[in-house]
Amino acid sequence: MIHKKSREEIKLMKEAGRIVALVHNEMKNIIKPGISTYELDKIAHDIIRDNKAFPTFLGYNGFPATICASINEQVVHGIPSKDTILKDGDVISIDVGATFKGLVGDGAWTYGVGEINSANQKLLNATEEALMSAIKKIKNGINLDEVVGEIEDVAKANNLGIVRQYGGHGVGRNMHEEPFVFNYRTGSKVILKSNMAVAIEPMLNLGCDDVYVLEDDWTVVTKDHKPSAHFEHTILVTDDGAEILTKI
Ligand code: MG
User: Fold this and answer.
1) Mean pLDDT, range 151-161, rounded to an integer
2) What separation in Å is there between the alpha carbon of 87 and the centre of ligand 1?
3) In angstroms, what is the span from residue 35 Cα to ligand 1's centroid?
4) By CB distance 3.0 to 4.6 Å, which of 12, 87, 155, 241 could disulfide with 103?
5) How far is the CA of 234 from the centre of ligand 1 (A)?
6) What's the CA-to-centroid distance between 200 and ligand 1, angstroms?
């Protein structure tokens, strides 16, 4: 059952999304060689609390931090640490959720640290393009497969791997609601309707599709250890399009 949001829920989700965007705006400014992912986490936590929201990820299934900070071959769910210091040329994916009065906003962005090489820049550009192309397709009555087909097509056109085991999701009172959103066509029969909210989040790799989980039981890395990128927005389906609730 895919839940349609009430007017009040939409209002609260917009505020949750705004707070997620505030965090990303700050991350964009402070991500530089020499800063630790622990410091990024602390700053994200303070922004969320200062805006009367709660960090959705903190404690979720035991996750120990406010943000997921995933560097280079790390795809998602990297754990911030004082020992993880950003270096020139890294790419870092920051994923963050904010819960405002019980409603969730969820958004991820991959940032270059200092100067990044052209292959990594292409990876970031293409993954962002995949996200935005998918969002452009969304409107009341569209089949979800048509939406995620955009992600698959952009990935293929750029010769990038598509992470298969993780994907987007419905979002609202819970971070993860129905439907699950694969980042490729599956023959889905799911039809998006006005006032549904979903997180669209392509994860694309410079190399192969395959990933595995490190011994910390959280960090997902690419099997060939090539870099990965992750871009995510929480969106609201409208009659004639989609409203991005986490717009940076
Ligand atoms: Mg998500």
Assistant:
1) 98
2) 26
3) 25
4) 12
5) 8
6) 7
In the reported structure, the alpha carbon of residue 201 is separated from the centroid of ligand 1 by a whole-number distance in angstroms of: 6
- How many other C-beta atoms are found inside a 10 Å radius of the C-beta of residue 115? 10
For residue 133, the CA-to-ligand 1 centroid distance in Å is: 18
Q: What is the pLDDT of residue 79?
A: 98
Residue 1 has pLDDT above 90, yes or no: no
How many Å lie between the centroid of ligand 1 and the Cα of residue 34? 28
- State how far the Cα of 200 lies from the Cα of 94, in Å rounded to an integer: 15
What percent of the chain is modeled with pLDDT above 90?
Answer: 98
Angle at 49 between CA 96 and CA 244, to 5 degrees: 40
Is-contact 96 66, C-beta < 8 A? Answer: yes
Give residue-wise pLDDT tens across range 129-150. 999 999 999 999 999 999 999 9
For ligand 1, the distance from its centroid to the CA atom of residue 105, given in whole angstroms, is 9
Is 173 a residue whose pLDDT tops 90? Answer: yes
Distance 65 CA to ligand 1 centre (A): 15
Other beta carbons less than 10 A from residue 173's beta carbon? 14
Decide the pairing of beta strands 197-200 and 103-112.
Answer: unpaired
- Which residue has tokens 């965007």? 21
Q: What is the pLDDT of residues 67-113, one digit of tens each?
A: 999 999 999 999 999 999 999 999 999 999 999 999 999 999 999 99
Find the mean pLDDT for residues 190-218: 98
Cα(211)–Cα(220) distance, rounded to whole angstroms? 6
